[in-house]
Amino acid sequence: MERYEIVKDIGSGNFGVARLVRDKLTRELFAVKFIERGQKIDEHVQREIMNHRSLKHSNIVQFKEVLLTPTHLAIVMEYAAGGELFGRICNAGRFSENEARFFFQQLISGVSYCHSMQICHRDLKLENTLLDGSTAPRVKICDFGYSKSLLQSQPKSTVGTPAYIAPEVLSKKQYDGKIADVWSCGVTLFVMIAGAYPFEDPDDPKNFRKTINRILAVHYSIPDHVQVSIECRHLLSQIFVENPEKRITIAGIKSHPWFLKNLPMELMEGGSWQSNDVNIPSQSTEEVLSIIQEARKSVPYPNTVTHLIEGNMDLDDLDAEVEDVETSGDFA
């Protein structure tokens, strides 16, 4: 981490903390997710890193490298200055159909690429859809912690966010991760247009059991005050289909009349995002796996974790704290 200087805190969660950093040489900004070494470096973290680093697409947050600090595993990624799409919809209440289509087209472009690389995301939602800082914001899919490489096996585990989860995932049987992703994309589209989740009971939105029952029954309706075109309603009806074998595919969405309207040239088949550039990672697979394995080892001095991440402790302070711990006999 010597190359980077910490700028500010940009998020936190069960994983740890995310910080904005600046490359001291190039002055370029990056987002870094810090995950505490030890038990938190589980299979989800490894899957997130290995799947994410294999993807290179303009609608996916670009993975840069993974580093090890004395206390944390640090995942360095492209910085999406526009924040979450969730925040944008909260501020707006809901989007016009044209604006929703603008973001949905990009989302589908990124998801289509993931699927072409045999990776299903399994936690697509507004919170995992970031925006860059441009005037016409570019969608950036992030957080591949629940992603699954289909080169290994079909997914079976029930993962994801309840409001976005497909009915077949709830059955706890093997399911097609790509088709489950389609359902989550449909929920994202619905929320952008209606300003509400499709399967939450409007009178009891926090009732998880009701949400699950409504998902299983595919019980949803567009609010009366929301004007939605026939074409958009048709697309949603093709996405929200209980039987995954009868649900529209990503390819079907990409050929749907509503999706094709005002489709940017770069998102068309053969567009500029489909470059011939090969994603050549700065680190080898062996090196990354070695770093992850090392990160699984517990930190001997956990009290220093917060100080180091917040950047308010230098090495002299660390040495002094370690000496205090050793002389106190707390770690005998």
Automatic annotation (TrEMBL):
- Ranges where the Protein kinase domain occurs: 4-259
Q: Which PANTHER family match?
A: SERINE/THREONINE KINASE (PTHR24343), SERINE_THREONINE-PROTEIN KINASE SAPK1 (PTHR24343:SF418)
A GO cellular component annotated for this chain's UniProt record is:
cytoplasm
- Its gene? SnRK2.9
| EC number per UniProt | 2.7.11.1
State the superkingdom. Eukaryota
Q: Which Gene3D superfamilies match?
A: Phosphorylase Kinase, domain 1, Transferase(Phosphotransferase) domain 1
One GO MF term on file is: protein serine/threonine kinase activity
Query: Can you tell me which family this protein belongs to?
Result: Belongs to the protein kinase superfamily.
Q: Which PROSITE patterns match?
A: PROTEIN_KINASE_ATP, PROTEIN_KINASE_DOM, PROTEIN_KINASE_ST
SMART domains to which the protein is assigned, alphabetical: S_TKc
Organism expressing this protein natively: Fragaria ananassa
> Could you tell me what this protein is called?
non-specific serine/threonine protein kinase
